[in-house]
Amino acid sequence: MIKRKLLKSLGDHLSAKELSLIIGPRQSGKTTIMMLLKEELDRKGESTLFMNLDIEKDSHFFSSQSLLVKKIELELGKKRGFVFIDEIQRKENAGLFLKGIYDMNLPYKFIVSGSGSLELKEKIHESLLGRKRLFELSTVSFMEFLDYVTNYKYRDRMDELFAIEKDRVREYLNEYLNYGGYPRVILAEKQREKFLIIDEIYKSYIEKDISYLLKVEKIKAFESLVIFLASQTGQLVNFSELSNSIGTSVATVSNYIKYGEGTFVFKRLSPFFKNVRNEITKSPKIYFGDVGFRNYSLGKFGTLFDPEDFGAVFENFIYILLKEKISNSPYKLHFWRTKDKAEVDFILDLSGEIIPIEVKFKSSGKISRSFRNFLTKYNPNKALIVTTNFHSEVKVGKTAVKFVPFWDLYKMDVFN
C-alpha cells in the first residue's frame, strides 16, 4: 500500500458539513483513498455506504434525487452516516444533482470523487459554491514514492537519506523519471507489467475521458496533440504551428488543450513579463501532470537513456515539484522569455518578490547568459539553479545565486 499524504487532510474534513470532493486524473488512487477512509470509519463503528456510478446496480439509484435519498435511508437509516460516491462524472448535471441533495440538509456526510472532466462538462465548482471543499489527488509524488520504496524507514529522516545515500536517491530518481507516479505502475514489479498498465491507462483515458465524456470527434488529432506537446516539453507552444501539425483548426487546438488540462493530463504555464515590447506575453509552455504518461506518449516509457531526454523530463519533474510545493498558497509560477530567446525556466512569484529558477540535470556550476540577463534586468535578492546533486553559491550583482539539489526544494527555507 502506498501511503498518500492527502488521506490525513480528507480524514480531518470528515467532521465538516461540506461535501468532500476528490478530483484528479484517472487511476491516480481516488477510489483507493475513499475505501481507506471508509474502512477507518467502519472500524470506529460509524455507518457508511459506498456507491460507484461505474457499477450498474449503483448507478440506477442516481436516476433521481429522491430515489438516491431513499436508498441511503434504507441502508443507513435517518441518523448520522457517511456516504461515499465514486465516479460522479458519470451523472448528467452532477453539480446540480449534488447541490439539490446537499440542500436537503440530510444527516449524512458526502465524500464524492470524479475525474477532471466533470469540471468541464457540468461546471460543478460553480454549482456547489460554498457547499464543498476540493481535494486534488495527483499521481504519486516523488516523496510518496521514495517513502514507499524505502519501506517508510526514513519517513522522518529524509534529509539524512538525501545527504548520505546520494547515489541511491539518484537511482530512485531515475526510476521515477522513467515510470512516473501512477500507483499501479509503481506497484508492478516487472517492466513489461508496468508497460501494460500504462498502456491500459492511456487507452482508457482516450476512449473514456476524451471520446465518451468530452465528445471529441477527432481522437487521432487529440492523440497527435498529446504526442506533439510531449515532444515539446518545456518549450513555447505556438497554436498555429500545432494546428498545422495535427491538421485541425486553431480553435480546436485551443479546446483540446483545455480538455487536456481539465483531465489533469497536462497544464499550461503562462509567461512572466513586465516589458510587453521585449518579453513574451502570451505563448504558454506545457508540462505533463505525470512524467510516465508523458514518456509513454513518446514511446520512451522506461527507456530514458539519452541525457537530453532526461533533461526535458527532469524539468517537467521540477515543475510538478514546484506546483506541489506552492499549492494552497498565494504564490504563482511562471516562466520568462524574451523575443530574442533569452529564457528562464521558472519564475516563482512570492507575493511580489520573485525568484528565478533554472533547471540543470547536469551542472558544472556555470550560469547561462540568459539567466544572467534576467538577474541584471530584475535584480532579485535570490535565484536558484536546481540540479540533481550539485551544491554551491555565488553572487551575481546583489543576487545570491544558489545551486541546490532538487531535494532542497522540499524545504520551505530554500525560498526564504
What does the model show?
- With 416 residues, this protein is α/β, with parallel strands linked by helices.
- The chain folds into 3 domains: 6-136, Rossmann fold, CATH 3.40.50; 142-269 and 287-306, no CATH class; 320-415, 3-Layer(aba) Sandwich (Trna Endonuclease, Chain: A, domain 1), CATH 3.40.1350.
- Helix content is 44%, strand content 19%.
- It has 18 helices and 13 strands.
- The chain has helices at residues 6-12, 30-43, 56-59, 65-76, 94-102, 117-122, 124-127, 142-149, 158-164, 166-179, 183-187, 191-213, 219-231, 239-246, 250-262, 291-297, 307-326, 369-378, and strands at residues 19-24, 48-52, 81-86, 108-115, 132-136, 266-269, 285-288, 332-337, 343-350, 353-359, 382-387, 392-396, 399-405.
- A 6-stranded mixed beta sheet has the order 8-9-10-11-13-12, sandwiched between helices. Strands 2-3-4-1-5 form a 5-stranded parallel beta sheet, sandwiched between helices. The protein has a two-stranded antiparallel ribbon with strand order 6-7.
- A hairpin with a 2-residue loop joins strand 12 (392-396) and strand 13 (399-405).
- Helix 10 crosses helix 16.
- It is globular, with a radius of gyration of 23 Å.
